[in-house]
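so my prof wants the structure for this chain in the tokens format not the other one, which i didnt know existed until like an hour ago. anyway here's the sequence
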Amino acid sequence: MTPELAYFLKINVAIALFYAFYRLFFHKDTFFHWRRMALLCFFAISMLYPLLNIQGWIKAHEPMVAMADLYATILLPEQVVTPTQETVINWQEVIMQFAKIIYWSGMLLLTARFFVQLGSIIRLHFQCSKSNIQGVRVHLLKKETGPFSFFHWIFIHPQSHTESEISEIITHEETHARQYHSVDVLFSEIMCIFCWFNPFIWLMKREVRGNLEYMADHRVLETGHDSKSYQYHLLGLAHHKAAANLSNSFNVLPLKNRIKMMNKRRTKEIGRTKYLMFLPLAAILMIVSNIEMVARTTEKFAKEMMGQITEEVAMQAETTNIPELSTREMQEITLPQGTKEKEVTETQIKSVPDSVVFQVVEEMPDFPGGMKALMDYLSKNVKYPAEAHAIGAQGRVIVSFTVKKDGSIADTKVERSVNPYLDKEAMRVIAAMPKWQPGKQRGEAVNVRFTVPVAFRLSDPPTPKAEEIKQSDLDEVVVVGYGPQEDSTPGAVGVKGENTDQAFTVVETMPKFPEGQAGLMRYLARSIKYPVIAQKNKEQGRVIIQMIIGTDGSLSNVKVLRSVSPSLDAEAIRVVGNMPKWEPGMQKGQAVPVKYTLPITFRLQ
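here's what i got, hopefully its the right format
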């Protein structure tokens, strides 16, 4: 269900509940002004309560996001593509499309009717002659039509009424004009246009207009007009046709209800207190509306932080000591709502089974000594295999592993292979890591999955020395290796500054696909086609695509990190390459290029 549809349904559910509440408690009392305010509040709360998000009071996600920014590699959700064996009609989608057509058609017709009626009133305003009757400026109708008002415009056909009747009509319509009853009428009409299929909105509209007539009738009697003669006058106007439904017509409501309300004994003043009862109902609606969002807080933030978020370490055959890294060498990360500690009441849960592996948790695992120590460990322990040197093999090996509850490393796996020797070396170093501080979810140690890219790179000297580069320019530390000379000299530390064309792996504001995560999933599901040749050859598997989101949101450097077959690779590249522009990533207030990784799984049924 899309957020727009959920919002729309919540509005209509609230209208139904408020109407039932109104009929139960307020329908028969004589507090007409209070009833008017209650009806307007019902409309306003129905539209606003789905937008109120009480998650802002719950900040449990903040420390989790901060840790995830530093350590977790969160790939875009995997898109599974399966070939269709035969054409199957998706009846659910057909019904939804048909319902959309009906809804928009009804809304279009009601909108057209609204503007036609509004135009007819404006036309009468310019066509009718103006006059002052009993000190009130009125528009004189040329045809015998029931009297009505629209804001401060009062329309009447004087020839159809006696002098006493005109006095009653002027008092009645002037009440509508002075109290701006047309605002209520227009608001209820607009709500009916958007929620026309909901019968309760039409019932609510009838209550709004009826209450306005009760207010005007009550004012006529308060000014001293005779109740009996006024009621007979209303009976005489029952056959008159209203000029426009948008106006406050003198004879808009069934006369029986109006006459009963005029003769009704006034409700006791203590009865006003019951109007406060709708406040708990509004609070309950807001809480129920937010239950689902609060429950999905962790999942939502994990999905928003798409893309690779790891440091890349390039290795050489003979590595050297890494200089001490200052905090300026790490990217600044600003959380959306500050960096406060967790402020959420946690529920009691059962112990997490050993088989469950998390991707993102509240307290991420930590390498002994932190990120700098992890980079030092990798640079000191990874050795460039001589066999790989001999054939000039280089590239990035992506290794995934699980940090267990006790901090040990398990389930080491090569996600992207470059060369058997390089793969083996990367696996060896990762598996030999010391125990980590385990990750925690709701105070309990849990298993957490990590992905680390290790780049083996051969390059020619010279490179800038570390001491020649200002610390303030440091953004990303890369250990650069030299070629496989017998007497190779020690390596140097190269730095990618903000003024280079290198893509970032983590920024303060990550790029966003148009319409967000749901829009990306819809685009992939709609665009990807299973190649016929791949179906014939029974080719299936997961293609991993890497791309760079540029400063203008365009995609470039689309390439396959992990291949399955030429046809599946080509299809994955085609779809990714045809994506619309993204909202670019932002770092320190500037748009920057950001590297993303997207896995697409092709699976035969």
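also thought this was worth mentioning. DSSP finds 17 helices and 19 strands in the chain.
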